[in-house]
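ARCHIVE CARD
Drawer: 12
Card no.: 0347
Subject: one protein chain, sequence and derived structure
Cross-reference: see card 0346
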Amino acid sequence: MPANSILPKTESLLSLAPARDEAKAQPSCERDTQVQLKNVGESEPADRAFHAALAQFSGGISPVALLLAYTDWLSHLAASPQRQLEISQEAVCDGKRFFDAAQHFFTAGQGPWSLIKPQAQDRRFTQPEWKNPPFNLVAQAFLLGEQWWHNATTGVRGVARQNEAIVEFSVRQMLDVLAPSNFAATNPEVLQKAFQSGGANFVFGWQNWYSDWIRLLSGGRPVADSDFVVGESIATSRGKVVFRNELIELIQYYPTTDKVRPEPILIVPAWIMKYYILDLSPRNSLVKYLTSQGFTVFMISWRNPDGADRDITFDDYRRLGVEAALAAIEGILPARKIHALGYCLGGTLLSIAAATMAREDDADAVYQRKPGLVSGRHDVAARCSGHDADGGHISVIALQRPDLVTNYPRLFDGRAGATE
């Protein structure tokens, strides 16, 4: 339903005001009110410029959102003496357990990781050198502290779920910077490399740091890793571009089975990601899995925007992205129901597109041609993301992977390539 059919017209709003002497000149404040009502919904260039400048310093994350989240958490924690007592007791208990384990490290039943083990996805302490003292004790102390902060930032009554997630996420990022794997003196892998190379790894590492810092100041992109080549080591599923407009390319992947399922699947990734986010390699490719199950898969690949695209709106992404892709699929596979899956911001866009088409079309058309599956992924980084043709959004995306932000192999071992 159009906005003008919901909201009263400007004249109606002004007519609600008390009657005045028409002979008198209209006050300037009323003229300003009319101007404001007329400009509702228009973009404010000053605000956009300020937010763009602020994003350069904050990595695209809203300082206001962080402040509100921490205020919510701290105020409710201050009003919860029972929760304060619980986390204080947990800190004392963890300290006692750690000192007992340090005193009896070599006794039977103790040894490495007797207090806490790294999670399966934590690759910082996987090497066997981390099982040796004192490095194992340092790693366990760090993991205990990380666990304590997780418990302290969660479970506080009254805190909004979204604010709790922001606080827990941001605290975890700050703690990851202090991980013992990030410091040469507490990283056994780095020390072993230093002994083997006679300290040359530090020389080459600092050269890497200097080149990365210069590239960052000049607005350049991160160093590409030759191990990741599109079409060779990543995005290896065979596909064909079947549709193109000014905003997207639509890629079709054909089933690899003898029997083909009748209903195709449309995947809508976020426009701040490459299309092959769900086709990284044969062992972790959703595209390969779906085609091996007999599905015809269509994937949207968003065009990388530049400064000339600053006026493209969210509605353009809906029309030229999701709806244009659905229309193209209908032309290729007519009279088929279409399953659709959206990842990250793609799920948000897909949900909005489905709701818009359901509003504008009749029920039969919606049933026949609209998405049968809508999936959205929302998190702190996704909510703070935006367009940046120069790769500025990479810092926000990387926050979801702490090993991409706080792991420094180029600094300590002198490798020339990037981490990922």
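Annotation on reverse: The CA atoms of residues 69 and 283 lie 38 Å apart. The beta strands are 239-244, 248-253, 265-268, 297-302, 339-342.
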